[in-house]
Amino acid sequence: MLRQLPVIGLLVALSASAQSVAPDNTDPPPTEAKRLLGIIPNYRTSASLLNYKPLTTSEKFKIASEDAFDRGTIGLAALFAGESQLTNANRSFGQGGAGYGRYFGAAYGDLVIGDYMTEAVFPTLLHQDPRYFRSGKGSGWRRTGYAMSQIFLTHNDSGAKQFNYSEIIGNSTAVAISQAYYADNRTAGDAVSKLGTQLGVDMAANILKEFWPDLERKLHRKH
After folding, report:
1. Is 0.70 topped by the overall pTM?
2. How far, in Å, CA of 35 to CA of 49, rounded?
3. Bridge-partner residues for 36, per DSSP?
4. Per-residue pLDDT tens digits for 199-208
5. CA 134 to CA 214: how far, in whole Å?
6. Distance of CA 185 to the CA centre of its chain
7. Are 177 and 113 in contact (CB under 8 A)?
C-alpha cells in the first residue's frame, strides 16, 4: 500500500481497545482469518514462532499472489482511487470515468508491486521470511511495541532475527517503480513521503494483526 489510509487511526484505536483483553494461552492457536475487518488481506500472519518451518520460494510467491489478487486488495484500490480523484491528487489523470480508471490502475499497481517486492522477490533474494509472527504474550504496550518493531526486524529462513531488509528495500523499490506512472509526484520529497506512509501503514497493520484474535474474542463476548 503506497497511499495514506484514513483508517490508520482506526486500526490503532481498535488495537488499543484490545489491549485490555489478556490473551488466553490455554486456547489452541486460532485459525487465521483471511481478511481483517472484512477487507484487509491477512495471508502472511502466523500465530507464533513455535515449530518454525521456513517458506519455500514458491510459498513466498503464493502468499504475495494471495495478497495481491484478493478481492479485499481490489476493494482497497477502488477506495484509494476514489479518494485520490476527489482530492485531485494527480491532475494528469483527469476526472470522469477515464480519470478514475487511471487512478484505480495506479492504486492497484501500487498494492500489487508492493506485495510482490516485500513478500516474494526480496524475501527470496535475501532468504528472509515475509510472515508476521504474532507475540500474543505480555502487556498490551509490550505487544504493541513488538508489532511496531517487526517493520525493522524479521527472521531469516533459519529462524534467526535480522534487520528487515525485505520490508525497507522492497517498499523503496515499489516507490521507485511508482514514480514512472505518477507524473505529478516525482520529486525526492514525494518518494520519501510515500515510503514513510507505506511503512506507517504496514506498522499499523502489524498492530491490528497482533491483536486481531483478542478483538474477535471481545466482540464474541459482547454478542
Report:
1. yes
2. 21
3. 40
4. 998 999 999 9
5. 12
6. 23
7. yes
